[in-house]
Amino acid sequence: MSILNYFVPLHSEFNYADMKVSIITVAYNSEKTLADAMTSVLRQTYKDIEYIVVDGLSKDGTVGVIKSFEPLFKGRLKWVSEKDRGIYDAMNKGVHMATGDVVGILNSDDFLTNDTVIERMVKEFPADAGAVYGDIHFVRAGNENHTVRYYSGRVFRPWLVRIGYLPPHPSLYVRRELFDKFGYYDASLRISADFELIARLGYKNRVPMKYLHIDFVTMRMGGASTRSWSNRMLGAEENMIACRNNGIRTNWALISMKYPIKYLQSVFIRH
Questions:
Q1: Among 256, 178, 173, which Cα is nearest to 7's?
Q2: In angstroms, what CA-CA distances link 210 with 11, 23, 264?
Q3: Is the overall model pTM greater than 0.70, yes or no?
Q4: For residues 96 and 103, what is the distance between their CA atoms, to the nearest angstrom?
């Protein structure tokens, strides 16, 4: 059965006007920033949001922050604090807890860019899409009003995973049932399981993924994949592994091409 045939029976049953959205935040020692993330979800104009926080047994006041927000969500917040095997294992826990029609990830040190992000996403989610993605922008901690870099998913096409390029993962919203059909995050990867998931969905299984011109997330600089040169090298190596595991032909020369593309994008593509 083709992927298009797979979606046909759902069109008459799936009312996007009534879409329930699950947003997952993975936290560990996130006391200083988690409140910003949670506030940005709480302030969304779209209210059919299930918010899930998966904490990895933080040693600071993270759990206290979660508990302080719990009554404000009025039953729409789920959370757990327990040991995990890394960030992607924690994301998988969140996806398993989710009951929404679509699922997105919001990092604990980031926040939704404005109060209407989810409402716009729901209104613009195409009926024939299995996932949508958009844009994000980077800021420095303490100066969140100044954009350091704008990262757009506009140029992404599934074949670009061959050069290690993907749309910004914090802007990705996936129909929850696709995790059951095609699998969850590969927790054996340390920093590239988001790349592997997009490669598996969009390239290997031809899930229709559509771009929305929405600035989803304000992201503080210093993510795991760009924190150091060694992490960049690990990310490239894991991209190679992800491609190989999904039958996608690539090599080191192709993977390295993503860096000039990202640079050109940062120069020429703006909001």
A1: 178
A2: 16, 19, 22
A3: yes
A4: 10
Q: What is the DSSP letter of 199?
A: I
Amino acid at 35: A
Torsion angles phi and psi, residue 218, rounded to 5: -95, 115
DSSP 159: G
3-class secondary structure per residue, 85-132: CCHHHHHHHHHHHCCCCEEEECCCCEEECCCCHHHHHHHHCCCCCCEE
Q: How far is CA 148 from the centre of its chain?
A: 20
pLDDT tens per residue, range 129-168: 999 999 999 999 889 889 998 999 998 999 999 988 899 9
Q: Which two tokens stand for residue 82?
A: 């327990």
- Is residue 179 a contact partner of residue 266, using CB atoms and an 8 Å limit? no
**Domain annotation for the chain: domains and CATH numbers:** 3-268 (3.90.550.10)
Token readout for 124 is 């613009």
- pLDDT given at position 101: 98
